[in-house]
Structures are given as C-alpha cells and as structure tokens.
Amino acid sequence: MKTRKTVLVISIAVLAIIYAVQLAVTSRSPVKTLRLKDKIDSLTIENGEEKILLSLDGGLWYLGEEKIAAEDSKVIELVDAISSIKSLGIVSRSTAEAELERYGLADVTTMTVTAQKNGKPVRTPKIGKNASGSASTY
Questions:
Q1: Residue 84 CA to chain centroid, in angstroms?
Q2: Cα diameter, the chain
Q3: How far does Cα 31 stand from its chain's mean position?
Q4: For 135, left (φ over 0), alpha (ψ -120 to 50), or beta?
Q5: Which one has a higher pLDDT value, 99 or 127?
Q6: 35 in helix, strand or coil?
Q7: Rounded Cα–Cα distance for residues 59 and 79 (Å)
Q8: How far apart are the first and last CA of the chain?
Q9: Helix (H) or strand (E) holding 46
Q10: From CA 36, how far away is CA 76, in angstroms rounded?
Q11: Of 112, 105, 138, 121, whose CA–CA distance to 51 is shortest?
Q12: d(CA 133, CA 110)
C-alpha cells in the first residue's frame, strides 16, 4: 500500500509539472512590439511614383526639399507609430510574387515608409492592403 501511494504522489507531481509547463508555453501572446532605440530624424514615404520627405531640423518637422513647415503633432504621431510597431503574427514567410500580391505588397498601391537616423535607414516597413474583417494592415 505504501508503494502505491508513493507512485500516485509522484505521478500527480509529474502531471502537475507538465500542466504548468503547458500553461506557460501556450499563454504567450503572439503580439510582439518592435521598438526602435534610436530617434528618427527623417521619414520618406513612397507610394508608387509619389514621394514625400519629412525632416527634423531644430526640433521642428519640415516637408519636402523646400522645407515647408509640417504640422508637428501629426508628424510626431506618425513617428511614434513607426518607432513602435505591433506585430500580430506572421501570415507568410514566402517571398513568392503571388504571396506578395495577395497581401498588397507587390503592386503600385504598396506604401513604403523609410525611417532614418543621420541619413541611415533604421526601419523600412512596407504597407499593403487592409486585412479582411479587422483593423489590421499587412
């Protein structure tokens, strides 16, 4: 009888450890926040043939080569969005043209945003079409 109790207690302990490991592994959120360490000092937004340049000079944001004053609050909102991107998951690892077209990343509607620090690109997200049934974008 003593051996039986010992085996049952050990079995319960092993199952409890397996259960705890499964809870720890499956409860991880697939959402990842990708944050930049450096501050962005210029943005280039390209959509087909159109190109917009935003640059920081003396604490103020300017638009284009002509240095037209930009609305700082809107640009700061854009910089914050580029500096901290939430990834909800991976939809595909394929670089095939068909997969890129499926998510709106291979045609002229693709928007490319290049964030730079001291003239060097630090992040270049490509923005495709909206996901169906949600507020997410590829």
A1: 7
A2: 89
A3: 9
A4: alpha
A5: 127
A6: strand
A7: 13
A8: 62
A9: strand 42-47
A10: 14
A11: 112
A12: 20
* 27: number of Cβ within 10 Å: 7
**Residue at 64: amino acid letter:** G
Structure token digits, residue 100: 């890129």
CA gap 100, 118 in Å, rounded: 31
Which single residue is written with the structure tokens 């705890």? Answer: 20
H runs (alpha helix) in 1-138:
2-26, 72-83, 97-102
Residue 30 has, within 13 A of its CA and on its CB side, a CA count of 4
Q: DSSP code of 130?
A: B
Which tokens in the block code for residue 47?
């959509």
Q: Please give the backbone phi and psi of residue 78, each rounded to the nearest 5 degrees, phi first.
A: -65, -45
Assess contact for 113 and 125: CB atoms under 8 A: yes
pLDDT at 100: 73
As a whole number of angstroms, the distance between CA 89 and CA 32 comes to 8
pLDDT in tens, 105-117: 776 678 888 899 9
pLDDT digits (tens, 9 = 90+) for 35-45: 888 888 899 98
Q: Is 68 exposed, middle or buried (0-12, 13-18, 19+ CB in 10 A)?
A: exposed
